[in-house]
Amino acid sequence: MTKNILKHLAIIMDGNGRWAAERGLSRTKGHEKGAETIRAITTCCAKHPTVETTTFYAFSTENWKRPKFEVEFLMKLLNRYLQKELETYQSHNIRFQAIGDIEAFSKPLQDRIRNTEELTKYNTSLTQVLALNYGGRAEITSTVNTLIAQGRTTITEDDISQGLQTPYTDIDLLIRTSGEERISNFLLWQLSYSELYFTPTLWPDFTSKELKKIIENFEQRTRRFGGVK
Ligand code: FPP
Fold it and tell me: Is residue 14 annotated as part of the catalytic site, yes or no?
């Protein structure tokens, strides 16, 4: 049996708050540790022979409902993360891209995001995509509205696939940490035929070792894409 090839991996990083609560720490400490996990998993993916893109759900359109203090902390953490990460992106040949409506963010943060995209755009070992103020329904709706504005009256599946913001739209494998088994409005169109993997591990505890085991599991699965095999 031929092995499945993992090109596009998507991750719902969940459990930062519970990780912190288990240790009697504030939720923000969980997010800080979670940011370190993003770094470790990204560099692991950059070294992987087949993975081309890794898309992380970093901030959803629903995350604005969190306490103001926590939202502000997440924004500052993202800014710090991108500032610090530039060196890693360049030394590991990683391209950074954002998806989602970042216009809701402060101007300096938007500039940081756009500059990081610009400075890393020729890097080729991996594309790290951060979904920021992202919602799957919003992405599909905005794609359709763009097509309508272009004067289209009939819209095909290919039109939508090509109009989405997400680079390399087909996702091969989605991992969600922390034991929750939901999609939570992430990449709804692109996940249509993805393999799903749910692990009880909380995101700050997730390691490259576990990722490698999950990839081995994915490689052995039978993927039928609606047909027979
Ligand atoms: C879910 O944990 C995590 C998020 C809000 C998204 C991921 C955010 C990070 C990994 C923080 C750092 C991000 C960047 C890009 C620097 P939760 O708070 O929902 O955990 P809980 O369900 O245990 O409360």
Answer: yes
